[in-house]
Amino acid sequence: MNQTLLIAQVAAFIATSCTVLFIGFSIRDALKRREQLWIKIRASHVSKVEAGAEFVRTVLLETVRPMSSVQKLLRQTQKNLLRAGVGRNAEDYVADGLWQGLLGGISIMLAVSLLSSPVSGLLLGTAGGVLWAMWIKPSMLDSNATQRSRLIYRRIPYALDLSVLVLETGGTLREGLEEISLQNDPLAEELRITLLEMDSGSTQAAALRGMGQRVGLESLETILTAINRGEETGAPMVATLITQAEMFRERRLQEIEKMAVEAPTKMTFPNMMIMVSVLLLIIGPLLIQLVSSGLF
């Protein structure tokens, strides 16, 4: 039995060593094949360690890019980066995730191999690295993007009311947008970006469409489309904004009513768990007394 276990551990150690050597030789071959890329990255970094890390990130992304799951991850990451207001490129973000997953996977592999067995270390390290790069890190970004979208959604009615107030006092739509952008919230941040695009030469319609695409909220895109259509047709902007505000509040009321209808169904399982807990608190001491008294 001990001899069989020893053979298995030796075989696992050899397999792990071969894996590490394979990764090392792959990196060396990548350096040879991508010599120009290495020279370019090395020239932009003072430290060789930083240059090496960026080179590995780039090579990792190029290696797995043809995979359909990675292509989907890149597209979804680009959308979530825009929704979250993060000024980064999707390729850089995914490459960082792959690099972190590689380092984390190697760390887990070494730790588990020393404490348990190389086979377990190899499996857990690989699973941990893949989970971090392909699921955990993207899920954290998606959560941040969703939270920011909710904050923008809540600020829409206040922004519409403020715009209407500015227009009714003789101001322009641009002045209304500038007044909203003075606030400290995600919607104001997006409007500041939109105003900068307009100042840089982009038309108002294009800037507003870009804002709708960045945020990714259907209700906001509808409002911005109505504003652009009103500008094109010459319709009174005050009436357009008032109509959009009423429609937005109506949609929001419908959503609240839908949530109220679905609430009892969603609360069924939590209510059952609470009921079971209360019963255990009530009956538990009685059962303990009966068992201790020898009745059972």
Model description:
With 296 residues, the protein is mainly α. The chain folds into 2 domains: 2-145, no CATH class; 149-263, Up-down Bundle (Receptor-associated Protein), CATH 1.20.81. Helices cover 87% and strands 0% of the residues. The protein has 12 helices and no strands. The chain has helices spanning 2-33, 35-43, 48-64, 68-84, 90-115, 118-168, 173-181, 186-199, 204-215, 218-233, 237-266, 268-292. The radius of gyration is 29 Å and the shape is flat.
Nutshell version of this structure?
The chain is mostly helical and about 300 residues long. The chain has 12 helices and no strands. The relative contact order is 0.06.
Report the biggest beta sheet as strand number plus sense, adding barrel if it closes.
none
Regarding quaternary structure, what we see is single chain
- Enumerate the spans where pLDDT stays under 50 for 5 or more consecutive residues: none
Number of helices: 12
Mean of residue pLDDT values: 82
Strand segment tally: 0
How many domains comprise the coordinates?
2
Strand content range:
under 5%
Radius of gyration: 29 Å
Gap from first CA to last CA: 45 Å
